[in-house]
Amino acid sequence: MSTLRFKAIEETFNRKSLNIEEPGRRSSVFGSNVFNESVMKQYLTKEAYNNVMDAVKTGAKINRTVADHISAGMKEWAINKGVTHYTHWFQPLTGATAEKHDAFFETIGEGLAIEKFGGGSLVQQEPDASSFPNGGIRNTFEARGYTAWDPTSPAFIWGTTLCIPTVFVSYTGEALDYKTPLLRALQAVDQAATDVAKYFDKNVTKVNATLGWEQEYFLIDSALAATRPDIQLAGRTLLGHSPAKGQQLDDHYFGSIPSRVLAYMRDLEIECMRLGIPVKTRHNEVAPNQFELAPIFEEANLAVDHNSLIMDVMNKVAERHHFVVLMHEKPFAGINGSGKHNNWSLGTDTGVNLLSPGKTPMKNLQFLTFFINTIKAVYENEELLRASIASASNDHRLGANEAPPAIISVFIGSQLTAVLDELEKVTSGKLSPQEKTDLKLNVVGKIPEILLDNTDRNRTSPFAFTGNKFEFRAVGSTANCANPMTVLNAIMAKQLKEFKAEVDKLIKDKKMKKDDAIFNVLREYIKQSKKIRFEGDGYGEAWEKEAAKRGLSNNKTTPEALKVQVSKKAIKLYGDLGVMNKIEIEARHEIELEEYTMRVQIEGRVLGDIARNHVIPTAIRYQNILIKNVTGLKSIYGDNYEKHAKEQLELIESVSTHIAVINSKVNAMIEARKVANKIEDIQKKAESYCNEVKPHFDEIRYHCDKLELLVDNELWPLTKYRELLYTR
């Protein structure tokens, strides 16, 4: 293994940056492999085009006859671009994307063949889905799942395959993917937000949730990654001593982008342009070999699809550059992990961002309405929001003094805090003309002027307002954005529905004017949700104590965090909105717990294997060298040898101590796994892996890392952190 390590390092010395040729202006390349509106106008009949646009804008159904016309146009376009296969591209609950390719090619007898792609193939398929998580809905013996076309997300070409974004449902109609509940949540928030927006503009007919994600990742040379079984099987390093130089100097973040990496980024961006993914920003991140890319914000469903797609594209492009992309939230101990900030907002079909302050008191009242309702929604459902970003990998990152804590809080900045403090003082009931004027002109009307710095933010906050959007900073880098977006849009839909009901009641029962009613309800919301707002340092122990006093949850582990998913409150929330039924909720809960258990189980097995089959034998080999040295000294110096072999003897003892602890802890871990594996209850099983199996990891790692510092570098089998992080 040590030989493999040095061969890999040697291989990296010969790496050269690939020469990337720009195919043309980015603007001209953008969307060239996407079946978008402009392409549809060329390849579809007017009837078919209008049908698709109606489906996109209003959710109207596409009949089979029209589907045949659409599929014919789509096939012609794809074949003209060299496509040979098509697939329904979907996002099952495995966390990755899935596809099953079928050829356009079909025989017609007499030795002849044609390219065929009918409306039925476009609209629906039945993939063999027995291997996907069943979650109590489906079993292997009834493994029927259907994929159904989602016209709101355009088809695209990747390689020589036409990819058709779809939902994935069971034969009984339950959602088996991330997309289906998201689409339902987006529909719910559209209806609720449109109803509220009409208070301020009667012309609003639709509200879209928007999402701008930021993808952080590590790039590791593929030869070096191949020498690490933990990276290959677990996506992170399970052991490895911190290098002398890590991220202390911030010289990576503020340094120039390495040439090999820049070539990779350019190559990736060109592929993104072709796929219609509007990537705009690229830069180094804080940790060595850590980077980030981010697009311009888009409609939430499309943005989620683009993020899921780009994670696949990133890996495939990396192969050309001899890189491996690590998206694990904490691939290396002791340095920054990776997140995926979700920047969320609501926009009307009239072109207004509902979370952006306006230039008039009325526009600012609209802004405050949606702003305060968001804070209230987060306050009422903070545990559910925390559950949406829970995973085995994200547990390592949250609260690690580099990412937001597991406590959900909202940061809005001092300027908006002052505005809410003023609104909190609003008189109960009907406002006098003077009060209303003072309020609108002196408080609400001054918002644009006082928002001097729209980037005002707290890096330790999991949910921060950043001028015209909320940034959900706690989302993990491997996460499917659909999960947090489903929850966020669902809780917002519920909150806005309740807000409208309260305002309408005051207008009807108390004969209040609209503005009076809105101010009165917002005043109460400010008071009720005050506990969720926090402007200080989220990393400190003081905040944990303060949060506990406020009654905020602090669910540090995934098994703990996921419990709220199956609460009566959550089931009612999703049920009332039509986002998910009880069966779907319980299935997802079971799947996520099962995935957590399996990931910890895999990591435990890999760590045990490396510790026993790589670390201990290497340590013994080094110990034998020391023993041979001591024996030689004894033969030369006789009884006086200890004077000359003192350090060697101490090293031998140290190595023996570490070997003994590693072996005993691996045994203890295996026994803990055996106990956990016998537990039938999925919640208790996950808790057992979390509380009884996982704690052994750090103990085993500690002693393995100590041996890394003791054992001869020439013998050590695993590529070290300094090599993984600084070989570019």
TrEMBL record:
Residues 84-173 form the GS beta-grasp domain. GO terms for molecular function: glutamine synthetase activity. Residues 178-615 form the GS catalytic domain. Residues 489-516 form a coiled coil. It comes from the Bacteria. The keyword Isomerase does not apply. One of its GO terms (biological process) is glutamine biosynthetic process. This is Glutamine synthetase type III. Belongs to the glutamine synthetase family. The keyword Cell membrane does not apply. Keywords: Coiled coil. SUPFAM superfamilies: Glutamine synthetase/guanido kinase (SSF55931).
